[in-house]
Write a structure and sequence with these properties.
The chain is α+β, with helices and mostly antiparallel strands. It has five helices and ten strands; from the N terminus they run E-E-E-H-E-E-E-E-E-H-E-E-H-H-H. The protein has one domain.
Length: 202
């Protein structure tokens, strides 16, 4: 039976009525996306920024979204396929089921299907599931904000912090980080803006 989502929201996140149980001291975060997807391309920037507070990446590479058959093309992004997030606080399971050329690259397992059948039955991407409770479908930053930019362009905007794109990436990143921080019970230090958002979580 699919677990219904409640009407309760936190920012852009739905809150599951029946949380997903997992035996771990770490905060479990599940991501489903695909290399071709422009909305995934945008959301990955926020995920990477949010995770900086909790550990480090191994094998994280740069990539671009699809070069055809999507409304926004060749958007600069990261690729979670083959990447691992090393952390004492976060257990990240990221799946990119197809690459930017629409070729299959990661098969979904029974463990994936348990999560998707209960919390994202339609398999909409990008999908982020935080702490077995908080559900995000879609992207914070808009893919059109990445149009015509290179990876270096985006990084420069993130350094400046005052462009519309940078603000959108950081806003989404801070909400993701706040949910992780809240689930950890304040075990790690984060910026004040993240703590402020976390204080609003019921």
């Amino acid at each position: 039976m699919r677990y219904a989502m409640s009407q309760k929201l936190f920012g852009r996140f739905d809150v599951a009525q029946e949380p997903y149980k997992r035996n771990s001291d770490k905060v479990f975060i599940y991501y489903l996306g695909a290399g071709f997807c422009p909305w995934c391309a945008a959301e990955r920037w926020s995920i990477v920024e949010a995770f900086k507070h909790f550990g480090s990446w191994e094998g994280l590479t740069l990539d671009k979204s699809a070069e055809k058959n999507e409304p926004f093309l060749n958007l600069p992004t990261y690729n979670f396929h083959g990447a691992k997030f090393k952390s004492d606080y976060v257990d990240f399971m990221g799946k990119e089921f197809q690459d930017r050329n629409f070729q299959d690259q990661e098969l979904l397992t029974d463990a994936d299907n348990v999560i998707l059948d209960n919390y994202n039955l339609q398999g909409v991407i990008p999908f982020i599931f935080i702490a077995g409770k908080y559900i995000r479908i879609g992207s914070g930053p808009k893919p059109q904000q990445l149009n015509g930019l290179t990876h270096d362009d985006v990084k420069k905007q993130l350094e400046s912090k005052n462009t519309d794109l940078a603000k959108a990436i950081y806003d989404e990143a801070n909400h993701i980080a706040a949910l992780i921080y809240h689930a950890l019970g304040d075990k790690v230090d984060v910026p004040e803006e993240v703590k402020k958002i976390a204080s609003q979580i019921k």
